[in-house]
Amino acid sequence: MKSPLKIVLVGLPGSGKSTFGRQIAKELNFIFIDLDHLIERETGKKIKDIFGSEGEGKFRELETFYLEKTLDGHDGFVLSTGGGTPCFNNNMDTINKKGVSVYLDVSLEEINKRLLKDQTGKRPMFAGLEVGEITLKLKNLLLQREYFYLQSKIKLSGEDISTEHLMSALMGFFRN
Fold this sequence. Notes:
Number of helices: 7
Helix content: 55-70%
CATH class: Alpha Beta
């Protein structure tokens, strides 16, 4: 018997992991889990406050703990990870062993538009930055993280990011 489907979305900040994740979860009648929100709820602290008071190392420990707890403790879900989640503590290996990873490969131009439109205030990493600075930061993040993202079992790019395309990719994945 196959284990319940655990879909784990990875990609840069602003790639649509949370928005798309909610859509997919609704379509599949699965629960949706946003890893950052889970960490905030469980710790009672905002991510930016954990980074500020305890440092990135502590945050990455918490992130790995809650990632593993989620992957081990739930059946049939869609999980939106933080942009850096796959890049630390062998998290990408864990994701691929326990779930179906999906890389949302959105162009930097599109992410930039999304961040400028309404997201920068919600994302301390980009708050107060100009368009060129956001683009540069995104390029640097992609250089650092793409190696991990490309280990995903499924990759959806630009115009391919839709519920229909993911469902088709999942069916293809399970046929192989």
